[in-house]
Amino acid sequence: FCYDLDFPRSSGIRKGFILRRCAEILVLLSLQYCLSQQWTLPILRTFDRPLNQYSTLQNIERLLRLALPNHLLNG
């Protein structure tokens, strides 16, 4: 069968593995924070008035500029 009921287990907690995963999480969270500060917030600050006061092309351009950082940060 493809499904196995008995999985191999280690005798103890692998501290190195847990520390490495925690370090990876911290690095990725700090990268996400830096990207949002350096990339997304300056774009959002350019929205100085409501979207209905911009032309359609300006709205499309601004929303497309937000699409890539939003995809990378939340994807």
Automatic annotation (TrEMBL):
Keywords: Acyltransferase, Endoplasmic reticulum, Transferase. It comes from Rotaria socialis. Its main location: endoplasmic reticulum. One of its GO terms (cellular component) is endoplasmic reticulum membrane. This is Uncharacterized protein. One of its GO terms (biological process) is triglyceride biosynthetic process. The lineage of its organism: Eukaryota, Metazoa, Spiralia, Gnathifera, Rotifera. GO terms for molecular function: diacylglycerol O-acyltransferase activity. Signal peptide: none annotated. InterPro entries: Oat_ACAT_DAG_ARE (IPR014371). It is found in: Endoplasmic reticulum membrane. It is a multi-pass membrane protein.
